[in-house]
Amino acid sequence: MKWPDHGGQFHEYLNEIQQDEKILDFSVNINPFGPPIQMEEIIQASFDILGRYPDPSYRKLAEEIGQYEGLHSNEVLVTNGGAEAIFLVAQHFKGKKALIVQPTFIEYERACLQYNIQVEHVLLKKETFQWPFDEIVKKLKDVHCVFICRPNNPTGTLINKEEILALLIEAERFGTSIIIDEAFVHFIPDSERLTKWIHPFPNLILLRSLTKIYSLPGIRMGYCLSEKDTISALKSLQIPWSVNSLAAAIIPSLLEKKSFIQRTREWLTNELEWLQSRLKQLDFHVSNASTNFYLLKDPNHHSDHLFLFLAKNNIIARHTHNFKGLDGEYLRFAVRSREENEYLINVLKKWREEMG
Amino acid sequence: MKWPDHGGQFHEYLNEIQQDEKILDFSVNINPFGPPIQMEEIIQASFDILGRYPDPSYRKLAEEIGQYEGLHSNEVLVTNGGAEAIFLVAQHFKGKKALIVQPTFIEYERACLQYNIQVEHVLLKKETFQWPFDEIVKKLKDVHCVFICRPNNPTGTLINKEEILALLIEAERFGTSIIIDEAFVHFIPDSERLTKWIHPFPNLILLRSLTKIYSLPGIRMGYCLSEKDTISALKSLQIPWSVNSLAAAIIPSLLEKKSFIQRTREWLTNELEWLQSRLKQLDFHVSNASTNFYLLKDPNHHSDHLFLFLAKNNIIARHTHNFKGLDGEYLRFAVRSREENEYLINVLKKWREEMG
């Protein structure tokens, strides 16, 4: 079986098997609360803006994001989704050396390879997915930058903030940049955001995506936060009009939806607890996730069998064959609505009953 | 005075002077007929798609474009506007040598510089903007690719198709790629498109933008046509989910609007004739444009003075200070509605009366 790079592409395979039933896609990590914006607002925005070029400097938008983040607009770069932010940062370090803490989002490595960055990897500890702090620190002097995802995709785990602080201090001694992808940071408490460390640490680069929390992956909205010279260097690498006008128009109103984010977090805390207790009762290993997805493995059976069993029961999980250090041992699931999570638990019960 | 890179940014300057009056922006080259699509269609598409990731391979979309163009889907790459197509092609030739036929769209050179491409320039003939064919052919053996805009921005002129054919034949002998940006090709007869030469000439790369003809620059829609190995190499350089879902959903229905394009062409032929005869009566030099914009200069006065006179009369022209070989000598104007073109002619009459 050929495993696709991204989870959702399994639709193509599955549709061939069963076209008549509803498929639940647990492979995509987006907020099931749906967009917090009325389609009417999007439409209203569309009328005015799709017929105009976006401002090539995105100046006003950067100002608004800066205001929201407590930063100056020249410390903000708006990007064509989080993906463009990753590739711009890689381009910024082209030909140099990077460290990637694995398993993590596969696009960091792909971006590094594209820009001839020599990549070293360190692995999270087996089973617990804890941080190999000493090992990372030891390599800081040999690399120009470190890619970290926090909360981490695909494990859902959160590295301790104090360890990040200690890493930033160490990294500064060697002039090593720390790139932290906060694509899922909206799902955890505000106090976990690292925005306030942009000013004390010019070697910190934060990547943000608005795709997951606001359930609008189709619009492509992301940004990058760092000190102004880094932002200006990244901006000089960006293609013109990279961010579409709809994204540019909608971002400010999305940032204001604080109660939506609060509601999402409350729901998530409950739902994670509910899920984890049930999954453990069924003797699955579950990662200690603090965000809207988690890793799961059955200690008794290979995940490929479980994957196919789930598929036959209309559930798409995310395989982990292309995550370094996981190599297919786990499956990743998004936290979805209670009803859908219950359906998943029931299918997993059936699996346990049938397979032992 | 600091001349901005793109015309529209003058709004910022002008708004400071006069905020109460309507400003006519002749600096942006988009079709004044407006989008041929009902906003309701966009909205309908939005409902379904903004909440989903675009298919990362854009396979179905490439198939639909391929069908429209008479090419296979693996000869099509969908891009985040025409701009991404330009930058991907430059990245494909990184570190090599390119020839640019100037004056032309400034992003070719910017993209080349970004990817360490050594650039040589040849200039169109003064006044007539005719092609220096022999000079281009002479340089073919020394470069890996040639950037050509056809119809050419900013002159609006169209290089003879037979000369392009002769160039392709010569270029093939040296393994030199010919990159032709057809961003404005929809404004001229179908027979001028070079799509049919993709199969006989594997060294031909065509760049397309759907921005100008369909007046939807905010959505960012472009694509690239070439033989399959080139397309596959360009695709491997593209960031994931580069094209937003709205663009992906709308492109097929836009391609079907053939009568809209026909109507646009009929209007343009009339309007260009009307404009050129009036402008010549007023003793301006006008480029022999076949598309929806033209260059104009007053042989008696420097264009900067004319630019400011127009601005005071609520007209924004596109300065040409950053076009090689023009150096500010001309101004570029979009062909707009008859009423707006009449207003322009009247302001130019006033200029002639006052300045002689």
The description of the largest β-sheet of chain A is: 7 strands, mixed
Average pLDDT of chain A, rounded to a whole number, is 91
Question: How many strand elements of chain A?
Answer: 13
Strand order of the largest sheet of chain A: 2-8-7-6-5-3-4
Q: So what's the overall shape of chain A?
A: globular
Distance between the termini of chain A: 25 Å
Question: Over the alpha carbons, how many angstroms does the gyration radius of chain A reach?
Answer: 21 Å
The fraction of residues in strands of chain A falls at 5-15%
Short structural summary:
Chain A has helices at 10-17, 39-49, 59-69, 81-92, 107-114, 133-139, 161-174, 228-237, 245-255, 258-281, 303-312, 338-355, and strands spanning 24-25, 76-79, 97-102, 118-123, 145-149, 177-181, 204-209, 222-225, 285-286, 293-297, 315-316, 318-319, 331-334. By secondary structure, chain A is α/β, with parallel strands linked by helices.
Explain how this protein is built:
The structure is a homodimer of 356-residue chains. Chain A is 40% helix and 15% strand. Chain A has twelve helices and 13 strands. Chain A has helices at 10-17, 39-49, 59-69, 81-92, 107-114, 133-139, 161-174, 228-237, 245-255, 258-281, 303-312, 338-355, and strands at 24-25, 76-79, 97-102, 118-123, 145-149, 177-181, 204-209, 222-225, 285-286, 293-297, 315-316, 318-319, 331-334. In chain A, the strands form three sheets. Chain A has a seven-stranded mixed β-sheet, sandwiched between helices. In chain A, helix 2 crosses helix 9. The interface between A and B is large, with 46 and 47 residues.
